[in-house]
Fold these 3 entries.
Entry 1:
Amino acid sequence: MIFGLTLSVLLMPAVGLCAAESGHGEGSGESGTKGWVATDTYRVMNFVVLAVGLIILLRKPLSQVLKSRIAGIQDQLSELEGKKKKAEAELAEYNEKLAHLDKEADRIVTEYIKQGDEAKTKILKEAALAAQKLEEQAKKNIEHEFKLAKEKLQSEIFEKALAKAEDLIRDKITTEDQDKLVEEYLNKVVVR
């Protein structure tokens, strides 16, 4: 705003000079070709005095405006510098994290492999124990079935042998042998 005011004040004498010059040429045809006139000198002196007066009057406000603008720019620059340093620090931190990220990823993969191997070992142990238990149970079942089959076979053999013995006794025993057996039995029962 001050700049616009200053510019308009500086341009007013120039507009006045132009208006006077154009008025000069209209009245007589000779004055346009004349050269430098004494009034022109006064006009230029008037303009210089006015310009110097404006410079003197507006020097402090202009310098204050310029100083405040310079201070604002310096504040912005220092703020931007601080932001730049902060961004550089964050960038360095992220670069460091990225550098450690590979190591961290390797550590995590190694840890998962270790856990996988431990789980594998545990599962294999449990499977071996389960297989051993199944094998022992199968052996017990086989032994039990073998024992039952053996007892059944012995029982069948015993029954067949008994039947065969009965048949042999029936075929070979006589009535005298029967009477003798009955007497022995009675003697044993009665004597006791």
Entry 2:
Amino acid sequence: MTIFLDSDVLIDCLRGTDTSRAWLASVSSESFQVPGIVAMELTAGCQNWSELQRIQKFLNAFEIV
């Protein structure tokens, strides 16, 4: 099964929210994909270069579709 991740879940993970990280860990055997629009939402929300680099590194862990 493929799980499409929404920006809400990814933002919570980036913020270190325990519940979102726990959920991601519980379904880690599944394949994850991030819709392109969600990736754009995350990058558009960056306020500086270091945030953009952090988001890009984070997104590299997922397949963007």
Entry 3:
Amino acid sequence: MMKVNLFKLTTIFLLTLSLNSKSEDLGGLKKENHTIKVALLLDTSNSMDGLINQAKAQLWEIINELSYASYGIKKPNLEIAIYEYGNDLLESSDNFVRQVLPFNNDLDEISEKLFSLTTNGGKEYCGQVINTSLNELDWGENKNDLKLIFIAGNEPFTQGKLHYKEAISDAIENDVIVNTIFCGNYNQGISGMWQDGANLGRGDYMTINQNKKVIHIITPYDTDIIILNKQLNKTYIYFGDKGLNKYQKQAVQDENADNYSSSVSVGRAISKTKRFYKNSTWDLVDKSQDEEIDYASIQRSNLPVELQQLSNSELEEHVNLLSKKRISIKKKINQLDKKRRAYITNKKSASAKKDELESVIIKAIKKQAIRKNYSW
């Protein structure tokens, strides 16, 4: 009888271990959110001002569109990396390639780095910049992540000592899709081997008119969205050693968008309502929505001056109040954005943006995302 009981106990123990293990694995899957990883490799040689301008003007619309992606019932994260190549101001020892930003989900940081790019004459080594991005970036091990390279330029794809076929072969081994964007004539890009690069990289070959002026459609809802964005900014409470710097950076990127056009400003305001725009590391309101805050541990000297004398309970009450305001403001912006999107759809022609950076990148991402069961 004892042997039977011992056997039963052992069996139950092993089953419990197995179930716990599976539970931990499931927990791990929940924590390991799927991620869309996009590496932008931008030619910053002398003739590429139009490309960089389109990237700056259309960054927020690209991010907004990606925010609608799903993986089953889950919402994937987004990380963007930026490289520049083909600029004489870059180090020749690095083959005129520079990492501007590693994979990052801080949208203000991405905007700052993108707006810092300038152009200058140079040699464009496509194989080298692809290889460098593969070696330097943390692409991760999650097989369900969508890993994409978009390389844009206007010189032959064959330049440089490292052949593009070798670099793209490494990309395929690492489950990274290589998309090519030739800035110029479609057939010229084919003869320059940009299409071959995309075919080998299991990606799309695209062309854009980098000198085309981006036409922004003004809508009746833009002014209200911009006003609401100013109200949204007042709901942020910086904290920590880097809080003030991050808060100021947010304002600078708002200004960069404003200086470009009201439509870019609207696009950024909408991005700030989306799940990708998270600032838990420096904003108490975002932090409070992610975790329970120990207000006694918040260093008062790193808070805005008007909040430094608040008690723990008073600070918590203030954070809760602004949290409710933020939710309300975001809701209003999103309601206006639905009307804005419908207005733009009715106004623009089907071919209006087909040769612009935003359009080709979004089209390629949606097409390739289907292969990994992502949807919109």
